[in-house]
Amino acid sequence: MSVKDDIPAIFLDKLSPRGLETIQKCKEFVDDYCLPGDKLHAQQMSNDPVMRWKVIPEITEKLKNKAQELGLWNMFLSKHYPEGPGFTNLEYGLMAQYLGRSFVAPEATNTNAPDTGNMELFARYGSPYQKEKWLRRLLDGEIRSAFLMTEKGTSSSNALNISCTAKLNSSGNYVINGVKWFASGAGDPRTAVWLVMCKTSDSTKDLYHNHSVLVLDAKKAIDSGKANLIRPLTVFGYDDAPHGHCEIAFNDYEVPKDEMENILLASEGKGFELIQSRLGPGRIHHCMRLIGVGEYALLAVAHRANNRMLFGKPMNQRETFIIAYAQHKIDIQKCRLLILNAAHKIDISNPKSAQQEIAMAKIETPRTILKILDWGIQMFGAEGVSQDTELARLYAISRTLRIADGPDEAHLNQLARHEAKKFKFADEFFAKFDENLKNLSKL
After folding, report:
1. Which residue of 37, 61, 261, 364 lies most exposed, with the fewest beta carbons within 10 A?
2. Are the CB atoms for 77 and 111 separated by under 8 Å?
3. Which has the closest alpha carbon to 229: 252, 240, 245?
4. Is pLDDT of 291 > 80?
């Protein structure tokens, strides 16, 4: 089946031949290798509480090698960066809807979070040293990374609330104190670098320049004994090993002198700016992967309906079932159009100019896909909540995306305030309408 059938017609002429070919390759790679690879990945994961965080399933590297052979590598890094393969955000968005169908596909193609966002930060703001030491190795899939921003008891969707501190001591070194949690990727034994959002200033006049992003060697930090990986946090009971979402405590961790020159990403006080630039494209990536989740769920439910009898009649002939199925297809297409429109606007301008489009996609997509997953689970009955289908795990992952990168409420509030500024135009419109009506009556 050609991917052209899945691409809204309005966007077809905006794709390069190479982009369209790669989208097709993504679909075939996921269907032929990654979805079966998900089963092997689960089988190869150790059930030992300790070994789960030390051993990487062998299927992961095999799939990474295959992806590189096919040229499916780092597609997320858009044409704006010389380190990337040169695709647009729109083209990658269409690839991501297939990658999202599989648990292992993002890592297999080196397009997995949080590495994608971290690599984009390094590509845009990194020094030559940081690019050589961290970005090159991340792009090669040699290491992994973690992003440490969220804090317990803090509304972390507003970066200004981040309280983990990095203060300069008498020796001119940063001393870090604070607790981070839900640091995705921090549990992986291959994770070599942390990007840490810290408060480096206490200015009351310029709140937007109080924070900085520090680049820390994860191994050195842990070996110091003053940066402790406390525990992996679970998401609806899933630990997501060996990747993990971890709680990390800094207790007077002093950055070694030989790292001071290269610890800051961009410069001190740029943290808020960096966070905003990181989250825009990342939200689009998450949303397009969710489209893949929704499509996979409907595929699984259709297979179930084809093979399940209800009171002597196949489920796939039940009117209530097929009507619900059709409505879910409509809902997915609405989200797809929202996301692709946002991705295209980023391509032709920048993430900041597409802020409202990104917000709409980020609000609507997770909650729509969750409804579809919930319905799919219901169609499977008890099996739907068990490990014998992917739906329960997909629901757990997807539910977090109504919180990650800003909860619904934050985006809705921002979007509502933006739209409220336009209320005055309603009065102007109707005043003009009344004037036109009077003029028309005089004709």
Report:
1. 261
2. no
3. 245
4. yes
Q: What is 273-406's CATH number? A: 1.20.140.10
Q: How far apart are CA 105 and CA 192, in angstroms?
A: 22
Counting every residue, how long is the chain? 443
Which class does domain 3-112 fall in?
mainly alpha
pLDDT at 53: 95
> What local confidence, expressed as pLDDT, does residue 318 receive?
94
H-type helices in 216-354, by residue range? 218-223, 271-306, 319-348
- CATH 2.40.110.10, domain 145-265, yes or no: yes
* Mean pLDDT of the residues in the chain: 94
Look up residue 233 and give its DSSP letter. Answer: P
Per-residue pLDDT at 353: 87
Q: Which two tokens stand for residue 299?
A: 């595929």
Spatial separation of the C-alpha atoms in residues 126 and 131, rounded to whole Å? 6
Structure tokens at 30: 């996921």
* Domain range annotation of the chain: 3-112, 145-265, 273-406
**How high is the pLDDT of residue 231?**
95
Give the model's confidence band at 259: pLDDT under 50 very low, under 70 low, under 90 confident, else very high.
confident
